[in-house]
Write a structure and sequence with these properties.
Layout: H1 2-15, E1 17-19, H2 23-30, H3 32-43, E2 47-51, E3 57-62, H4 67-71, H5 86-108, E4 138-139, H6 140-151, H7 154-168, E5 171-174, E6 177-180, H8 184-187, H9 190-208, H10 226-229
Antiparallel strand pairs: 1-3, 2-3, 4-6, 5-6
Protein name: DUF4194 domain-containing protein
Organism: Zoogloea oleivorans
Length: about 230
């Protein structure tokens, strides 16, 4: 077990994220003793495993007590410990809202992208889906048409903003489409962002348009039940 923990720790540090389907990741998610040892190994160097059951990947991040010692000396930390600029952060939140909010609704309702919710009467008893089954894509040209005038211009958004988000692993760009990257759902806190977007910014936009705000629990993603927890067995 020692060698497997060393291997998994090294791979997490080298890759920043790993899919939940990976054999050692799966063991970390279901084997309590293995997870305890892994957490201890990571904690010894100020790291923790980030595991969001709704995300298709796991990742490592700094523990709260080392944020300031590691990032406090740089000016960028005031906005982002990844050094993202304000316009990069703004676009990241927009993309997160366009991809992750509908994805989470599909996951909670056990719906796939091509499912209208009526094809399987037992769908809500099915396993929690990840990946392309539930995660949609954005047409890059449409995103540019909507937001490039606000964030600068098309070349700037493509070359400086989208390319940086792709480099960091938040998004993937394929064939003119923007897809969810391995870190988009696992590093951005859904409960914090969803609340601020849906009942904050989006609520204000709907109110200005004369529409009622969404119900308070409309997009609340509950903790996965026992069936979801056993999914990784």
């Amino acid at each position: 077990m020692e060698q497997q923990i060393r291997t998994l720790t090294a791979r997490l540090l080298a890759s920043r994220s790993l899919p939940r389907t990976d054999a050692l990741v799966r063991r970390a998610l279901v084997d309590e003793a293995f997870r305890v040892d892994l957490d201890a190994r990571l904690a010894a160097v100020g790291l923790q495993l980030i595991d969001n059951p709704y995300a298709a990947h796991v990742a490592v991040a700094l523990t709260a007590d080392v944020h300031e010692p590691v990032f406090g000396a740089t000016r960028e930390y005031a906005a982002s410990n990844l050094g993202l600029t304000r316009d990069q952060l703004a676009l990241l939140v927009v993309i997160w809202a366009l991809i992750i909010l509908p994805k989470r609704e599909r996951q909670v309702n056990r719906q796939k992208l091509a499912d209208d919710g009526q094809s399987d009467m037992f769908g809500k008893d099915g396993p929690l889906e990840h990946g392309e089954e539930v995660s949609g894509a954005i047409v890059e040209a449409s995103l540019l048409a909507d937001f490039a005038p606000v964030l600068g211009h098309k070349t700037y958004v493509q070359g400086k903003l989208l390319s940086r988000l792709a480099q960091l692993g938040f998004i993937e760009r394929k064939g003119g489409m923007i897809l969810e990257g391995p870190l988009l759902d696992v590093l951005l806190d859904y409960r914090t962002l969803a609340d601020r977007i849906i009942y904050g910014t989006l609520g204000e936009v709907l109110a200005q348009a004369g529409h009622p705000p969404p119900a308070r629990d409309a997009f609340t993603a509950p903790e996965p039940d026992d069936a979801d927890a056993e999914e990784d067995d």
